[in-house]
Amino acid sequence: MSARAVNWIARTDSVRIRLSSSRLELLALVLLALALVGAGLGWRQPMNVDEERFLGVALEMLQDGSWFIPHRAGEIYADKPPLFMWTVALFVQVTQLPKIALYLPALIAGAVTTGCLYDLGRRLWGRRVGMIAALLFLATYQTYSILRTGQIDGFLALWTILAIYGLCRHLLLGPHWRWYYLACGAMGLGVISKGVGFLPVLMLIPYAYAVRKGWTGVVAMPGKGGAWWSGLGVALLAIALWLGPLLVIVGQGSPDSLAYIQEILFKQTAGRYANAWEHREPFWYFFVQVIPKYWLPILFMLPWLVPAWRKQLVKHDGRVLVLLGWVVLVLLFFSLSSGKRKLYIFPALPALVLAVAPLVPWLLRRWFRQRARGRAIFSILTVLWLGAWFARGFAEPHKEGTNPHETLMGEVARLTTHSQLVLVGWREGHWLFARQPLVHFGFYNRQSLEQSARWLRSHPQAYALVPGRDMARCYDPQKARRVGHTSRAEWFLVGADADNLACQPSTPQKVYSFAWKQPLP
Questions:
Q1: What is the residue-wise DSSP string for 115-167?
Q2: How far apart are CA 348 and CA 319, in angstroms?
Q3: Which residues contact 447 (CB under 8 A, 6 or more apart)?
Q4: Could you state, in order of their start, the residue ranges of all structural domains in the chain?
Q5: Where does residue 419 rank: exposed (0-12), middle (13-18), buried (19+ CB within 10 A)?
Q6: Distances (CA, A) of 140 to 37, 299, 433
Q7: pLDDT single digits (tens) 277-330
Q8: In the Cβ-directed half-sphere of 339, how many Cα atoms lie within 13 Å?
């Protein structure tokens, strides 16, 4: 055998060994992500209003078959597109365990994000950096505060990382048009999960600047205007999976469907961004109140990272510009909106991790040069840190206990022998854990207390669940029965005999009736 053939075989074997090692590392990291993010799965139950709402909407979809126009206790729910609720409903069907199904989309997103960060880090800077990127993501506080909850933002992370991965493969390692189109499709699915699913497209702004200035690490693709614009078509096709059938339903002339599409396409997107009616915070909210806590331990590295990033940008490293530029644009996008929540900036975290990971080996050498004991202590602290997040996954559900709405609604059903129940000023937990037929007059109806009194007069066998702070306007507190404290309110059960006749409301515009065929176990 010739020397050339021997060398070729040796190189081939070396490549196979490296690929095999990379796959084993990827598998180990994904399993670690499943263990850390999934810790306590099966013990958790919906505890906050978002989790109660999304699980309830998914279960109601399964019950009434209204997939394109979601409902909440019979009333149209127009706050969010339905893809997340579809996914939860699918997992409910597969597992028959609603309280587990709610958390599976975010768990999958965590595993996929970890794998994508490892692969991108490996391709951009090497295997060691890929390992660091994946582990740093799993070490960051916001990872668990988002991915262990049954909220849309955890599910949105799946489409965000797929878009980031596809764009990076195309812009930094390409050209790879298939990855670009996958990124566009992921953004489209992100939009029908939550309106901000388009945000990865902002990565094209720093990329365009880097290409124009001739920076290294980015791939120029001149003369491809048609191919670039085809990505918009792919994104629109993904959005059409929901919007197309919805427009058909609207075209049939249903007034409710028309109101729904106006609400979700205008008020809940552009209107909410420009003039939010809740969660209003100042411009600096994320920088002062969120990042210092939720982006630990990355925050501790900033005194060294910022000068290092500056040097990389001075050297015209396009990889750093694209990643950091996108992080800055995401922070700016959400800071300009009047409505802000701590979970909004989570999409920026994976790109930030990718920008940090290549500098970690340098930081460790700088910190622990000629300090073997320091390196050992750092390794031990890293294991303890990750172990603490694993343990916390089991401790938190145990500490939280049973959802108080579940306890309250069980007591209400017992006291009323499952009679019809009128909801006043209610929260999603009252509906989700209901054990009897419900009546209400709209989730945001400010006259629901007065209208409940009118309803009880014509339905004397029914009861009403009312918050204590308003009860005396229409009911005699002496004839009310306290049933519990939830949602920052004391709740009382009243019957027709408690009516003080002080409330004489007009006929409600709409009356919604709802009952679970199978109450949540």
A1: HHHHHHHHHHT-HHHHHHHHHHHHHSHHHHHHHTS-SHHHHHHHHHHHHHHHH
A2: 15
A3: 441, 505, 508
A4: 20-397, 404-514
A5: middle
A6: 12, 10, 34
A7: 567 789 999 999 999 999 999 999 999 999 999 999 999 999 999 999 999 999
A8: 12
